[in-house]
Amino acid sequence: MALPIFFVILVIGIQAFAARGCVETERNALLAVKAGLTDPSNRLSSWEGQDCYKWRGVVCSNTTGHVLKLNLRNSYNDVNKRPSSALSGKINPSLLLLNHLKCLDLSLNNFNGIRIPAYFGSLKNLR
């Protein structure tokens, strides 16, 4: 009988942790990514506070709080028609701290033809 109670307490504890916000190291990594980007249309304005699961483009696990997806895709298909909406700048290597990241979408932004950083190959969980 004590074993089921232990599991209930464990699940409640995990949910309480996730409800507090995302993992601090991952939140700081996201803020470092934001700091390296130029965001002329202020798409990343929601990236403040402790709850990065509420940030635009960030999807976190409901149980662990880890960042699973990062969608920074430009919503305008033709960057030439709306260049002021495109993110640009440098993609910070702190992205590597997002160990549970499964999906990363940076499409339709303007990184001025730079090569995909070699460290992207270290993002082992991307699908």
Describe the SSE topology:
Elements: H1 2-20, H2 24-36, E1 37-38, E2 58-60, E3 67-71, E4 88-89, E5 103-105
Parallel strand pairs: 3-5
Antiparallel strand pairs: 1-4, 2-3
Overall outline: globular
Give the amount of beta strand, in percent.
5-15%
> Average pLDDT value?
85
Strand order of the largest sheet: 2-3-5
Q: Please give the CATH architecture.
A: Alpha-Beta Horseshoe
Q: Enumerate how many helices there are, as a single number.
A: 2
**What is the fold named in CATH at topology level?**
Leucine-rich repeat, LRR (right-handed beta-alpha superhelix)
The CATH homologous superfamily: Ribonuclease Inhibitor
Helix content: 25-40%
Chain oligomer state = single chain
Largest sheet: 3 strands, mixed
Order of helices and strands: HHEEEEE
| Separation of the first and last Cα atoms | 41 Å
Total number of domains:
1
Q: Provide the low-confidence segments as ranges.
A: none
Output the radius of gyration: 17 Å
Annotation, overall tally of beta strands: 5
